[in-house]
Amino acid sequence: MYNETFRTPIKAPIYEKKINYKSKILSIGSCFSSNIGEKLKEYRFNILSNPFGTLFNPISIHQNLRSALHTSSLNNDHIISENNFVKSLDYHSDITSESTENFHQSILEKNLLVKNQMDDLDFLLITWGSSFVFEYNKTKKIVANCHKLPSKEFTQRLLSPEEIVLSFDELLSFLPKKTTILLTVSPIRHFRNGLTENNLSKSILRYTSHILEQKYSNVSYFPSFEIMTDELRDYRFYKEDMVHPTDQAILYIWDYVKNSLFNDSTKSVMEKWDKVLRGVRHKPINPDSEAHQNFLKKMITLCESINEIEKDDLILSLKEQIVTPKSH
């Protein structure tokens, strides 16, 4: 008998520790971690999302976090200048400055931001993208981004599970004992080496996450990869590049996140905030009309009733839209 749902649903994991509005959260890794991080931001959770830009390989992800915790100095051999902009092979191309001095300052500020967030951190969400890495031949070090330098300057290789575990162990030793680490494998496929190699790469990441989940009681795995590739296997859930998930797919996975990581109390607050989000997206035809002015006042009252969320900036913005009656 065929499956009448025409899909193969993934069983939603249930985690003992839940995210709430008092939780400190940091997400880091591939662009999928940005997708989920942005949803958490939208609902005003205390989250720092991908502060170092998109990172794909586990070694660079772990290294950037360790560097932030130690406020380590930059590897000057990895700093490059391109079209009057300074970048580093250890960071995404979004992180750039017009001078080496400014670049150092920018990284220092990001490191301090991350270090402060990781102090008493509740949840660390790590999304690994690929176990293929590039070593810079000059330093024999794994880099996060090649910045379109000639391929002859790098050597590509595949990480072993043992390397990833060793790197993770070192990172974990510096994290607060209370921190829960949620590992995910990015569902975004990497075509550069071909689909066969992509599957090999993803399998190493998935196997390694299993090892770490068995090894540490505060490490869990979230099946974003399986939800996207098995449950949402239809190409209608992919953007035109046939690689990245559509907004609909991200929302579908987000529902899994909500059901797995939030309790009923937190979800109740989020439902109230949904009303606020729908309200602020509303574009009035006549902002000065009595109807819209009353709507703004109702929105302010609703915002003020949600005590769990920091929203002073939004309330101020709404109040600025209130038209003061003209005196006669």
From TrEMBL:
Cross-referenced InterPro entries: GSCFA
Classification via Pfam families: GSCFA
Every GSCFA domain range: 24-255
Record protein name field: GSCFA domain-containing protein
Organism from which the protein derives: Flammeovirga pacifica
Lineage of producing organism: Bacteria, Pseudomonadati, Bacteroidota, Cytophagia, Cytophagales
